[in-house]
Amino acid sequence: MKKCTWFSLFLVVKLAFGAGGIFEANLQLDNHRFDTDVIRRMEEVDLTDCAVHCSERGDCMSVQYSLTTKACRLFSTVFLSTIGGDPDIGWRYYQKTGGSCPSRHTFTGIDGLCFLNGGEGTRPEGVNFCTKMGSSLILVKSSNIENFLEKILDRTSKSYTHAKSAYIQGTWNFSHWIDDEGEVLQYTKWHSGMTFIPSKSHSIKIKQYNSGYYWQEATSGDLYVRNFFCGYFLL
To answer: Which of the chain's termini has less CB crowding within 10 Å, N or C?
Structure first.
């Protein structure tokens, strides 16, 4: 069984900028340049200015800084691996965390969502990890959050089924699909071919299909290793 890898993803290299949060460097992404979801480019700036500009923007989740050219890029997303990046010596990636969000979570600006990548694990491992981090397994309550997660999954590795997938919040209570608070899910994106046994308890996974990403029930699949993400909503 493959355990959660979150702690190996982020190494402790931090720059603090007051209420704007903490910028944590993911050194595993060093020397790769990302060209998607860029919301601002700057030249000839220092790292502090780069981070401050991101800190001042609610739609900025992360930055990339070139140690060789002093170029800066602000992103409206987060990157978890080098998938989608191009090799380019000197670039270092920083993710904005904290601020009004729980520790290590990133404010997305999407429906008040604070986001944290948990790595890979079984569903129980994901639930336990997110609880310890002060949040819960991510609740996909809108198409905006769904689209955000799909873009994140596009940049992850395939799971054991040779498809990209992740556990999300939601269980079957023998009559309705509900969230952790017992409220009926208002947003869903079920795969058209999905079937499940009403007499059994179920949970939910997002899975990649040829036609895109859709939801599917997970029963014994709770013990398979998939991506999982934590979420916390600011009021």
So the answer is: C
